Amino acid sequence: MTPLLDWYRARSRREQVMLGAMMLLAVPILGWFLVVAPAMHWHDEARDAYLEASERYGRTVVLAEAVEAGGERAAARRIAQPLSDFVAASAAQAGFALTRNVATGGDRTEVGIAQARPDAALAWLTQLRAAGVAIEGMRLTDNGEGGVEVDLRLAKAAEQ
Q: Could you give the 3-state DSSP secondary structure of residue 64?
């Protein structure tokens, strides 16, 4: 620190005043670019991520409620073919590639989908419920690619 102070004292009075004015201007500018601007950027990113997540959550809740309400209103229909064949055809029609479709008897099947959009998957489940398929178990897992991985246990709904 002593060499810097000696250098400053070796300057003329006019140079010392100019160096002081430069420091008065440089400190707030550096503070803005090194602290405030990055903090505002991080805040904006966090707000955008929060808004996007809350929008996805709201859509998922609405679709999940539609699945529940649709299943309660729909009268169960009899599916003539084995459930695994019916689900495979329905998934293909909806644009889903099944990674697993294991029939556990003619009335039950376990289904897996590696990549699906949450809203599309829930809309498909609503269609299945309306067609007379009961959802015995469901797990939606974030796959890290902007979609979900779907695991289902399905059964033919009992006639009402």
A: helix
Residue whose entry in the numeric block shows the structure tokens 């178990």: 137
Residue with tokens 């797990």: 139
Whole-angstrom Cα distance, residue 87 to residue 110?
A: 10
Cα–Cα distance for residue pair 132/109, rounded to 1 Å: 14
Determine the Cα–Cα distance for residues 116 and 139; give it in Å rounded to an integer. 13
Helix (H, G, I), strand (E, B) or coil at 77: coil
pLDDT one-digit tens code per residue, 63-122? 777 777 665 554 446 778 888 999 999 999 988 999 999 998 768 999 999 999 888 888
Q: Which of 8, 7, 158, 16 is nearest to 78 (CA)?
A: 158
Of the candidates 146, 150, 145, the residue with the CA atom closest to the CA atom of residue 128 = 150
Question: The pTM is what?
Answer: 0.55
List, edge to edge, every strand of the sheet that includes 98-103.
98-103, 108-116, 148-156, 133-142
